[in-house]
Amino acid sequence: MTRAKLIAIVVVVLIAVLVGWRMLGSAGSGSGTRGGDADDTPIPVTVVAATTEDVPLYLTALGTVQALNTVTVSAQVSGQLQAVHFAEGQEVRKGDLIAEIDPRTYQSALDQALAKKKQDEAQLAASRSTLKRYEELIEKKFVSAQDLENQRQTVRQQEALIAGDAAAVENARTQLGFTKIIAPIDGLAGIRQVDVGNLVQANGSAIVVLTQTQPLNVIFNLPQQDMAKVREADATPLKVIAMSRTDSTPIAEGELKVIDNSIDTTTATFKLKSEFPNADRRLWPGEFVNVRLGVRTVKDGIVVPATGVQQGPDGEYAWVVQADATVRMQKVVTAGTVDAGGVLVAEGLAAGDKVVTEGQFRLKTGIKVTAMAPGEVAAPTPLPEGEKKSGGRRRRG
Question: Is 148 helix (H, G, I), strand (E, B) or coil?
């Protein structure tokens, strides 16, 4: 190999080593800077301290609203519907006149029964008079004892006939009374089922359905494992809250009335009935509502916002900010929800623990954070001087 070729090879190798060294130096410098920035800059997170409060515990279920009483008002006698005295959707009181059936046929039957009774009463009066004379003449031997006994039997028969006439009169009067259809309960009148002028049949023609909505019931089912919680609850009667199906806002408050006497073997649930005053009529028969049944109250329970509790592969946990501004993962056990979006924590947290409620996705154990109050916005990170002068871009060396 000539001397010139050897010198050329050495020069090429030196240039390659110099270029490689500069590239490695630049990469090491860049990665060190980025790593330092990531490790040293605290992550802004929203933090809320765990508090203590008396927490009512609820069992939740899907409930169905039912009218306290529902009555289908039907005709008890046949005839032509003569008049209707209610408006659809009207509030009807017990004893109000709802409708009338043509009474003429039943009035005639009553008159006939009254006339028959009077006729039999007149015959009874004559028989009693004859009996009285026979009793006077028997002492003078003017009538036989057999005639006297026969007359007494006649009087007894006619007295029984009068009793039958009285019953017939009461029956005819009752049938006549049925031509005036009276509301049996307080309630709301539904849609009219038959119009005036139609012929209605006894016990077959519905005129209107009345539903009692003040108060009313909400029926719901709970799993059989909750039976002990309900039966061993603190208060009696238990408080029940009906909530909207759309946004879970409270609609009405009532109380538990009945626990069914058996568990449904097909669903492993038991039925409960609650009663609501429904003074503002916000509940309506047939409506579905979410139901919360209060079973007991936890004194001085640990409460944190629901967003502070996360679900992991090993169960529930929360990020807790420590005194040195670093965070640690803390396993927790929850015991139910609390009003206003809170969670009752049975194990894992103490009062005053600072729990991260927003920004958890960037956290790792031991990383530093900047604790902010709910609604607070983190200040923007200032740019280095070199980036300010170059409009936010690093200068190339």
Answer: helix
pTM: 0.62
* Alpha-carbon 220 to chain mean position: 7
Three-state secondary-structure class, residue 94 = coil
The secondary structure element, H or E, covering residue 108 is helix 104-137
Residue range 15-32: average pLDDT?
58
pLDDT of residue 35: 41
Residue 38 or 48, more confident: 48
- In this structure, the number of other CB atoms found within 10 A of the CB of residue 207 comes to 21
* Residue 336, Ramachandran bin (φ over 0: left; ψ between -120 and 50: alpha; else beta): left
User: Could you say which architecture CATH assigns to the domain 104-177?
Assistant: Orthogonal Bundle (1.10)
Euclidean distance between CA atoms 93 and 183, whole angstroms: 7
Which has the closest alpha carbon to 371: 52, 148, 10, 44? Answer: 44
The pLDDT value given to residue 318: 94
- How close are the terminal C-alpha atoms of the chain, in Å? 40
Q: Is the pLDDT of residue 389 over 60?
A: no
Assign domain 43-53+300-372 to its CATH architecture.
Beta Barrel (2.40)
Cα dist. 155→98, 124, 128 in Å?
Answer: 46, 6, 6
Residues 6 or more apart from 285 whose CB is under 8 A from it?
Answer: 65, 66, 67, 70, 211, 213, 216
DSSP per residue over 232-270, as a string?
Answer: T-SSSSPEEEEE-TTT--EEEEEEEEEEEEEEETTTTEE
Backbone angles phi, psi at 374, to 5 degrees: -55, 130
Q: CA 200: distance to chain centroid? A: 39
How is the chain split into domains, by residue range? 43-53+300-372, 104-177
